[in-house]
Give the backbone structure.
Amino acid sequence: MRRSRHDHSPRPPERRPGRPLRHRARARRGRHGDRVPGAGPEAQPPGRHQGPQAGASAERFLKEIETTANLQHPHILPLFDSGEADGFLYYVMPYVEGETLRDRLDRETQLGVDEAVGIAADVADALDYAHRQGVIHRDIKPANILLQDGRPLVADFGIALAVSAAGGGRMTETGLSLGTPYYMSPEQATADRDLTPRSDVYSLGAVLYEMLAGEPPHTGPTGQAVVARILAEDAQPVTRARKSVPPHVAAAVRKALEKLPADRFESAGAFADALRDPGFRYATADTAGSRGGRRYGRAAALLGWLAAVVLAGAALWPAGNRVRPPPAPALAFELAEIGGDYATLAITDDGTVLAALDNEIRVRSPSALAFTTLHTDPRQVDGLASSPDGRWIVFSTFGDAEAGLYKIPAAGGDVVTLLDATSADNLVWGEDGWIYFRSMGGVLRIPENGGPVDTLLAAVRAPGDLLDGGRALLLTGGGVWVLDLESGDSVRVAPDGRRARWSPSGHVLYTHAS
């Protein structure tokens, strides 16, 4: 079937009565493994997209995708057909001459402000129409926005939900994911199944941010790291990367990227209106209000996303009435024998193992089979940790007259005294330039190069990881706590727990007696 390139109302191909419609296609992969729908020289009209394997529920897939097939909008790529063949579920969309927004950004990095805003406003119009029909996209990203003669077309509308329905949520078996980390809303990143249209608003805000700034609002070396930053950190204002962005556009992006859905635009249509209104402004706690108000807002936001993380973890935990997955094969290995009567271990980001053994500090690099002695101290070595850049090791010693806090170059060298005659354990060297530790006086911190000690909390609790860009600290002792480092407020998020750590998956990990 050949159509004029200016004909924007593609019609479905005719189906021969009594025979299933068969299609031929090649799937092209873009950056980050994104599928490129209906664009590029490798696509064959009409294209097929492979869905769940045999064993998935075809009936549920076809039922969910039927709603998508009814969407008719100038900026939505229509759905021609769907079905099952040879054990595969498929859906068919028209071939589009042009490229994806992902292709364009890979080539140019940033778009002109007017063009970027125009694309985002048109996509917002399409989202608003679909939302009013009860359809949420769930995977808005540059690879799903096609550009034909400068005109955006949103592809894969509702496909993520259809595939999820077919696969029973086991998305790793289908090769697809419900959302792409760079553009996921916080609620989607925490596996909230009851997404609202405001989740799509967030994703579109992230896409517009990238069109203007040259990169998404949150980046990281892995998908898990990106999700962690989406949950814990606010996006930098887009004007820091692009000063030419008009105030109303920067304000609209900021509102679209709010972590709390209720703080975003109430609809995609409202987002589009704001992008087209030079008079639109949006004041937040960071741009207006007193210092006390900012503290309260930050603490509330921190507790809000942390609660979401804890709840998400609870939701993912197998309950009695849920089907437990088959046990995964265990991977076990032994480090070279350390020996000695007392040892404390720590592992750096690059996989180096640090061991405090009696009065020695030993190191084992990822490529080594055995430990080497870095330092022998006249006192008993207690805790130890590595600096964020891996160049230094901080350690503590204990004893009535021998307690103290010290650091030594990771490559070996002279010991630097940070603190004398003070007990210290559970050491955490933060990226904010502070070393956190537990002492008899409570939770303390000291500058990484030495200086006055700052008492954060009188209660004796063990520091864990830093959260929220270094503005909060995990603690354990009588439960798992989160301490706001600016306001001094703390809240208990779990009744029992030890050794709390922040996981790149977006969860708080801890051990407990049971």
